[in-house]
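Input.
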Amino acid sequence: MMQAIKNIYQLGKKEILSLCRDWLLMALILYSFTAAVIVAYNASSDFADGAIAIVDEDQSQLTQAVIDAFLPPLFLPPAIIQRADIDRTMDEGRYTFVVVLPVNFEKDVMANNTPLVQVNVDATRMSQAFTGAGYIQQILSDAVSDFVRNSSGEDSSSAANLVVRKRYNANLNSSWFNALMQLANNVAMLAIILTGSALITERESGTLEHLLVMPVTPFQIMLSKIWSMMAVVMAAALAGLFLIVRFYLQVPLAGSYFLYAFGLALYLFALTSLGIFLACMSSNMPQLGMLIILVLMPLEMLSGSSTPQESMPVWVQRVMQFAPTTHFVSITQGILFRGAGLRAMWPPFLKLFLIGAVLFVISMRRFRKSVA
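Output.
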């Protein structure tokens, strides 16, 4: 028993030393948990600094109130242009939105004639077009309502004052979410790539055959690759979480770091087992790369890291319950965002452990068959 543990330790140590000598993979690890996370943080999907122009054909107090209502950070200061300049300026890409306030706008509003306001939207800017149009509609409605109420001398107080407070992310800052989900996606990518490439490299170089004639078993060889790659990716992921996400990007983390590390270990156990399985299904590195792309893309896109699973078809939600990424995303959001404890998060922990155990058994059987 002690000799088996020693063999697993020495073989895993060999894998870590071999990885340290591969400068390209080391550069990939460094980039994945530093620059890639920073880029994802800065690639915010929040609506801000919308370029807007206004055609004021009424020149009234109401239209001036509407113009003054478009404020940063949602919109840049509105530019005043003429109707004849709308097509040219939008074709040049200078403005995403052009609002046309018609003649007699204030007069029609005060007479309850419901005048029409034209809003031109450059829909080629998809990240801003839909959301910005909604903000414009809300701002126009609020500005007109306030003007009519103040002009008629009505009491602006209401019977009930509704105050909406958002938990966990009061300002709806998507950058916090992007950084942590990019970290989780990079963990999946590296765990599969490093484990699979370690096995493929030994097979192509012939060292796998050398190991098989030594007093070591396929189980010891496989387990050594799993624990060594788990240790490397876990150390890099936790370093990226603390140094980049927490301290450099100043993303607030609410929950227990130890509980998150435990979930990360279970996640890596499942993914490294999957990496061994994919390597056993491949005869060379290009085939492994194609398999990783085919497996990793749906795992990341359908896990809930980019789109909530509730918005997906029911059958997709059920299928993704068998994917480890789904439960790790749930663990990450529950612990680091909401500060949830083990009492609330034990179901995804249990599911992650069961998925990892099944993947390990399947990979072990496939590995033994491939080296037989």
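Strands lie at 52-56, 79-80, 97-101, 118-121.
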